[in-house]
Specification:
The structure is a single chain. With 723 residues, the protein is α/β, with parallel strands linked by helices. Among the domains are: 146 residues, no CATH class; 230 residues, Rossmann fold (3-Layer(aba) Sandwich). The protein contains 24 helices and 19 strands. α4 crosses α7 and α7 crosses α8. This is NOP2/Sun RNA methyltransferase family member 7.
Length: 723
């Protein structure tokens, strides 16, 4: 409550001086902007319906004080607008901006009304208190100048009445404002606001515009060409660059960035009028692009609390109308009668709106059996947003958020309430057994709404079901800076509020891979195409592959015609190796040929036909020349045997040396003319697998050793050959 001395009004001369001071020093920035424009005031006031709409919005979001501190009484009934037609998009945006500005300065405006003696000297009814607050803010913002409207067809009696009162108290209002600034030692009333609110307003004034390309109606190249025809130049960044420029976003390939001062010009071009370019906050584009990266072919999507219908349209755009998109949270179709018409204009054909709220949808709902990815955009404090009015209007959020923005923070009780709602929605999304991923995205800067909710949901998820549990996955978006890499080290994607973007938090939860589950080639190609790895390659429909029975025989089947090229290369390599070793192996070849003529097989060794031609390579075992076996068998190291687990293992030859076989009627130890020659048995071995069957091969004489004279020339004597 103001002191009685503060309500005493000074003499007339001091009031004039203070009013002039108020007009000259309200804002140095505003004065300079007016001078740049040639001295013409930028702000000329609003039409009457805007004031009425702003008053009704302010009535619902104003800060209520305790009864002992009440300065002005407010009515409970809203003002009636002139007609429903006045509530179009342009009037609505202006009304919310005006109401939010009045809310930020509510305490100061109430003090000015009391200090200027408008209250209680005038008999203004309580239901007009909200109207006089919003009109007073606009009056001081115009430096107490009269409205300059070229055509004000929709005149409203209440607005005209309040405007006359403000004009009659013009001098006193200016003096009261000047004293308030002097009291707070502020150059303008903007400096009276909390620092967090001032920083937010500064970011909102310079934040670039983000717009995504509707590729269902136009290609990016056509957009670039159309913008260049209108004088726009493509650059790498729009920061600190004037003129008509645009850039392509680094995280989302279909999002363009424009400087903030170009919005009015862009809204008047056909690209935006025809829904070929759509303005939207970047955080929503990041969310739908994350979903896109997780999709397989024919996967359906469930979007929860999407807010803006443009987010749904962007998701439909990225899926190219292939996947079915379910949207829940719309209470009544009658609430959005033009929604179907909007989607038709944008080219979207795969959107289905569910009338139920998300928590009322059963996870066993038959409509959602093909849903594989759930996009959750829960209601949050939204304090990462620089322009709360744009956020509320575009995302259809509750106007109560404006109260938090005006005070620069959210109360603990409200933050706790929001976190409980977010946790309930996230845990409900994790109950959908057919879903394989959940994308959780907010515009909040509070960990209580972000990391804490996700970690709690993962910690207390139900492990009793047969399905695989969820785990935290790394971001599926490209990390374009070292700062983003560091901030994503804990697998969360964060963007802090800055001069180039609003704040954003994004988390991706995916089910752990079932070891018994195989991924089809179709799904792998779909994910690769979603990540841009198959750019320029058109994917056709893949046919189902039939499973073939694997051979259980010891020897592999003959190689197919597709492998002939590989076998030819192997044969050429062996021929080269043979030529290099020709001189070195000539003697051994002659001896082997002689031994093969006189050697007989012993025991129960396998019966293998003798080769009809001499061996071309002395290093190749004799059984490799068997004409009954598949060809070519020219190098044992390339002999492969199919394994049950579809792994091809390279087999290596193993040389087994056995002791000599003794016959019952053997001669004395000194003379052994009938001892068979040492036999080498070759078998092909893989790890833990032995190919049955082995074949005898005559021995090779050791270098420098001479055969005994009393032994046939076809036999060699070796000492303890089994060692």
């Amino acid at each position: 409550m103001l002191e009685p001395s503060e309500l005493q009004f000074p003499n007339e001369s001091n009031a004039e001086e203070l009013s002039q001071l108020a007009c000259l020093a309200l804002s140095d920035d505003e004065v300079s902007s007016e001078q740049d424009a040639g001295g013409t005031p930028d702000k000329t006031g609003y039409p009457d319906p805007v004031y009425v709409m702003a008053a009704n919005v302010f009535q619902g979001i104003r800060v209520e004080t305790s009864p002992e501190k009440v300065l002005i009484k407010y009515g409970k009934e809203p003002l009636r607008p002139l007609s429903s037609g006045s509530e179009d998009g342009s009037f609505q945006h202006l009304a919310y901006e005006l109401a939010f500005s009045a809310l930020k300065y509510q305490g100061i405006l109430e003090t000015i009304l009391i200090d200027s003696c408008i209250f209680p000297s005038t008999t203004i009814p309580d239901h007009l208190s909200s109207l006089i607050i919003v009109m007073l803010y606009d009056f001081q913002d115009r430096k107490f100048q009269a409205r300059l409207l070229s055509d004000n067809k929709q005149c409203i009696v209440e607005v005209q009445e309040v405007e006359n009162i403000l004009n009659s108290f013009k001098t006193k209002l200016a003096a009261a404002l000047a004293r308030c600034r002097i009291k707070h030692d502020a150059l303008s009333i903007d400096h009276i606001l909390p620092e967090t609110v001032r920083n937010q307003e500064l970011r909102a004034s310079t934040l670039p515009l983000y717009a995504w390309i509707n590729t269902l109606k136009i290609s990016p190249e056509e957009v670039y060409f159309s913008l260049k025809k209108r004088g726009y130049t493509k650059v790498k960044t729009v920061l600190h660059i004037g003129g008509k420029v645009f850039a392509v976003d680094q995280h989302c390939y279909d999002v363009l960035i424009f400087p903030s001062h170009l919005k009015s010009d862009l809204l008047n071009i056909d690209l935006f009028k025809d829904y070929k370019l759509i303005f939207q906050d970047k955080s929503r584009s990041l969310a739908v692009h994350s979903v896109k990266a997780l999709l397989n072919v024919d996967d359906d999507i469930l979007m929860v609390n999407t807010g803006s219908w443009y987010t749904v349209a962007h998701m439909s755009n990225l899926t190219n109308n292939n996947s079915k998109i379910f949207v829940c949270g719309v209470q009544s179709q009658a609430k959005h009668p033009d929604l179907k018409n909007l989607f038709t204009k944008m080219g979207c054909k795969n959107i289905e709106i569910l009338p139920e709220t998300f928590l009322n949808i059963e996870w066993k709902d038959n409509r959602l059996q093909k849903v594989k990815v759930i996009l959750l955009l829960p209601r949050c404090s939204g304090l990462g947003i620089s322009n709360p009015v744009e956020f509320i209007l575009n995302e259809h959020e509750d106007t109560d958020l404006l109260k938090d923005f005006s005070q620069g923070g959210t109360s603990e009780d409200k933050l706790r309430f929001l976190a409980q709602q977010q946790y309930a929605q996230l845990t409900h999304a994790m109950k959908f057994t057919k879903a394989q991923a959940v994308v959780y995205c907010t515009c909040s800067v509070y960990p209580e709404e972000n990391e804490a909710v996700v970690k709690k949901a993962l910690e207390f998820q139900d492990h009793g079901t047969k399905i695989q549990p969820y785990r935290l996955s790394p971001p599926v978006l490209p990390l374009c800076s070292l700062e983003e890499v560091h901030s994503s080290a804990d697998k969360f994607f964060r963007m802090e509020p800055s001069e180039i973007t609003n704040g954003c938090f994004l988390s991706v939860l995916t089910r752990e891979r079932d070891p018994s589950e195989t991924v089809s080639v179709k799904d792998v190609l779909a994910r690769a195409a979603a990540k841009g790895l198959l750019e320029g390659i058109e994917l056709g429909k893949s046919s189902k592959r039939e499973k073939k029975k694997k051979s259980k025989t010891a020897f592999p089947k003959a190689p197919s015609t597709d492998s002939k090229g590989v076998q030819v290369k192997i044969a050429e390599f062996l021929n080269r190796e043979t030529n290099e070793n020709a001189n070195r192996s000539q003697t051994a070849t002659t001896k082997i040929s002689l031994l093969q003529k006189g050697t007989t097989q012993v025991g129960t060794s396998s019966q293998v036909r003798k080769p009809s031609k001499p061996a071309a390579n002395p290093l190749v075992p004799a059984f490799m020349k068997n004409t009954s076996l598949p060809r070519p068998y020219e190098r044992p190291t390339n002999f492969v045997r199919p394994r049950p687990e579809d792994k091809m293992v390279v087999l290596k030859p193993v040389e087994i040396v056995l002791p000599p076989v003794m016959f019952p009627l053997s001669p004395p130890p000194g003379i052994r003319p009938h001892i068979p020659a040492q036999h080498f048995y070759y078998g092909w071995f893989a790890p833990k697998t032995v190919v049955p069957g082995y074949h005898s091969t005559p021995p090779i004489a050791r270098k420098g050793e001479k055969p005994k004279g009393n032994l046939p020339s076809s036999f060699l004597r070796h000492r303890r050959p089994w060692l």
